Amino acid sequence: MGGLTLTLLLLCLSGTLSEDAGEDNLNDIMVQIQPEQGQDIENEYKTHNQHSEQDQDIESEVIFKQNQAPSLPETNGSCQPDMCNLLRHLGAMEARLTTAENQVEELSNMEAIVALLQRETEFQAAQLRVMETKLSTSENLMKSMKRENDVQERKLQVLSFRVNATEFRVEQQQILLDELRRQSEDGTKIAFTAALGGDGHIPPSERETNLAFSNVFTNVGDAYNPGSGVFNTPVKGVYYFSFSSFANSQHNVCVSLFRNNVRMLSACDHHTEHDSSDSSGNGGTLHLEQGDHVYMTLHAHSHIFADFQNRSTFSGFLLFRT
Ligand SMILES: *C1O[C@H](CO)[C@@H](O)[C@H](O)[C@H]1NC(C)=O
Ligand SMILES: *[C@@H]1O[C@H](CO)[C@@H](O)[C@H](O)[C@H]1NC(C)=O
Ligand SMILES: *[C@@H]1O[C@H](CO)[C@@H](O)[C@H](O)[C@H]1NC(C)=O
């Protein structure tokens, strides 16, 4: 009966413990109070119980000491030796309780720190997610910029092709323009007309002979030589030549136009009893190289009239250069 009361008293003393720590501490207390020691205390208590007024004092003393803790050991002068022993145990227990409380507080501080660290970690994770989003946005932007860049590059290539084509056309037109300018500026102008001059006819010969048309009417460009009757082609191009010949009644007339050593054009008229003059003529365009010689010949056994009536003539001019 006395033991139960003590246990209740001890439970009251440990009322300040937290719920978790309370049970452990109570066990500690029960261990501290060994069975035989407990029996002593119980006996002691019974003895004291017989003096009820004294009992009242002790109970008050215990409650007072609890309020005065942890200065219990210094008050041993005013308590019974057994009670003092109990009180010292109580003081030690209280000290351990305080330590445990401190540890609990430390633990709860640690928990707070852990919670803080957790919040910090969450915050950093959130920041990381934001940065990841930003990064992927930047990457997408970069990709789209690269695509745009590729498109621009292709456009530039197309433009480059067009510029090249335009440049080519401009170059061609420049060449054509230069040629036209050259033709119109140094505009080689070649034209001549000359007639056989002399005091009568040129008699027939045993062989074909050159004719020198010495009566010059025009000789623009000085390509025709009236002394030899040879036209010396000054520039490559297309030329037009014409000639005519005249002979009187008893004679045949045959003339030819030569390019270098090649006969090109001819004209003949054979005499008859019925007319008193024989005329013939021919003409055409020739494509000549620079330096080509063009001249007229009188065939062998042919006759031609040469005076100042200008009936036998040789003409030529440049149509265009090639
Ligand atoms: C209490 O008791 C201890 C020995 O148990 C002694 O050294 C001390 O002086 C005592 N204190 C008082 C206040 O009597
Ligand atoms: C344009 O012409 C230049 C040389 O004139 C050449 O280097 C370039 O490759 C050409 N560009 C294209 C797109 O043909
Ligand atoms: C022949 O040409 C000369 C000039 O060289 C001219 O004086 C003459 O009148 C011309 N004769 C005829 C018949 O046309």
TrEMBL record:
Keywords: Coiled coil, Secreted, Signal. It is found in: Secreted. GO terms for cellular component: extracellular region. It holds the Pfam family C1q. It comes from the Eukaryota. Residues 185-322 form the C1q domain. Residues 90-183 form a coiled coil. InterPro entries: C1q_dom (IPR001073), Cerebellin_Synaptic_Org (IPR050822), Tumour_necrosis_fac-like_dom (IPR008983). Its main location: secreted. Residues 1-18 form the signal peptide. This is C1q domain-containing protein. The gene is LOC112246467.
